[in-house]
Amino acid sequence: MPTHHIQALLFDLGGVLIDVDFNRVLEYWQPISRLTIEELKATFSSDLPYQQHERGEITAAQYFAHLAVNLELQDDLAHITQGWNAIFGGEITETLNLVREARAHLPCYVFSNTNATHQAVWTALYPSLAQSFERIFVSSEIGYRKPERRAFEYVANAMGVPLDAILFFDDHPDNVEGARAAGLQAVQVRGPADVRAALQRIGCVA
Questions:
Q1: pLDDT by residue (tens digit) across 139-176?
Q2: With b meaning 16 or more CB within 10 Å and e meaning fewer, what string describes 142-165?
Q3: Separation of alpha carbons 153 and 23, rounded Å
Q4: Is the pTM of this model over 0.85?
C-alpha cells in the first residue's frame, strides 16, 4: 500500500473506533418477532430503505415501519428503537489512543455511514469522541454514504484535501474498495494492529 503525500487521516466509526455488533440488535428484537434469531439474521439486509435511512432520505419512523413488516416485529416504535440502539458496545481504546498520537502530525477526521437515531446515541455515549477529530462526517447529514464515489468526493472537498492525499481506515471491504476506486489510499481494519501498522509506516506513531 503506497502511503506517500498523506495530508489527512480519515476513520470509519463503527468497527474501527467503537465496538458495534448488529447481532445485539437482532437478539433484542427476537422476543418481539415471529421469526427465529436465525431467520432474523437471514432476513435483515442493507436493503434500499436501509440505505435511504443512512442518507437521510427517509425518517427513522418510516424505516422502522419497514423493519416491523420485514422482520415481523410485534411491538411499538419505542421498543423497536431501543433494540436498534443495542448495537453499541464500548470505545476501541487502543485505536483512539493511536488517533490522538497521530493527530500531532496530521489532521484526523471521521466518516460514518449512520442515521440520526444512532448519531444521537453515540454522541451521548462517547462525549470525548468529537474532541479527538477535526470533524465528523455523517452520511445522513451529507446525503451520501460509503462506498459511493460522490461520498468520498464530498468529504475530501469539505476537508480541503486531495483524494489521493487521504489515508482512510474502514472495517468493511466494500468501503475500502470504494475509497480506493475514488482515489483515496485505504486500509481495511480488522483490529487496532492494522491501524498501528499503517500509521507507523507514515511516521505518525511510534
A1: 999 999 999 999 999 999 999 999 999 999 999 999 99
A2: bebbbbbeebbebbbeebebebeb
A3: 32
A4: yes
Q: How confident is the model over 159-168, as pLDDT tens digits?
A: 999 999 999 9
* pLDDT score of 33: 96
Strand, coil or helix: what is 75?
A: coil
DSSP state of 165: G
Give me the residues paired with residue 33 across strands.
73
Rounded Cα distance, 184 and 41, in Å: 33
Lowest-pLDDT range, 27-31, 54-58, 66-70, 72-76? Answer: 72-76
**Which domains are assigned to the chain?**
8-17+92-201 (3.40.50.1000), 22-87 (1.10.150.240)
Backbone angles phi, psi at 89, to 5 degrees: -110, -140
CA distance 86 to 96: 22
State the burial class of residue 5 (Cβ atoms within 10 Å of its Cβ: 0-12, 13-18, 19+): exposed
